[in-house]
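tmp note - SOS response associated peptidase (SRAP)
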Amino acid sequence: MCGRNSLFIDQADLEARFDAEVAADGGYTPRYNIAPGVDLFIITTRLPTRSTPTTGG
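out:
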């Protein structure tokens, strides 16, 4: 069974919430049904002011 994620907050609200810059190639698009194996944008402790893409799964 696979898990699904969603990320549908407005980009400006997301950046304000985490005091971070969305680093999405091609821009940020809200998504309501993110499947495993699709790139997700995460904030890590190593780069706490920047979101980076990673593959979910």
